[in-house]
Amino acid sequence: MLSVITCPERSAAGLCGLLSDLVPGAVSGLIRDVLVLQPEPGDPELAALCEDAGALVVSGGLGVAVRQARSDLILLASSGLRLDAFALDRLGRDLTALGTPGLARGLALTGPAVLGFWSPGPPLGLVTPRARLLGLPPGCSVAAALRRTSRGALRLRIAG
Fold first, then answer.
1. What is the DSSP string of the chain?
2. Angle 7-84-4 (CA atoms, 0-180°, nearest 5)?
3. pLDDT per position as a tens digit, 89-104
4. Could you tell me if 128 and 76 are in contact, meaning their C-beta atoms sit under 8 angstroms apart?
5. What pTM value is reported for the model?
């Protein structure tokens, strides 16, 4: 159902939590494939981590990963996104309820609200149709794509 695209923000080790959180989603059929953008060519730590997790390392940027994704529905995820079993189940149910027309603007996954503010925290992930990501400029990072494409998206608050 979903292709996940992510990128290590600081180090490959920072992806361990996200990749392990995605395993139950892959087993249940919610997640079809995981693509990890390679920030530096030939990073052996990233290659080993992705091989162990069953993720595909992609070089060439976000546009290449979007075209290689096996699903037309993409979860663009920051490496800080955490999805426990409850969040994965809720995400699956919400995607089913919304259907493709309901996801035209995307579904932003946010953490808890910032203390003292009503608005939810910044988007940690975004479920969106592939077509919305194909128009991004070359060289666009996952973080920039999240900021850009999550404007106007529906919001789903998940545990940080």
1. -EEEEE--SS-GGGGHHHHHHHHHHHHHTSEEEEEEE-SSTT-HHHHHHHHHHTPEEE-S-HHHHHHH-SSSEEEEE-TT----HHHHHHHHHHHHHHHHHHTTT-EEEE-SPPTT-SS---EEEEEEEHHHHHTSPTT--HHHHHHHHTTT-EEEE---
2. 30
3. 999 999 999 887 778 8
4. yes
5. 0.91
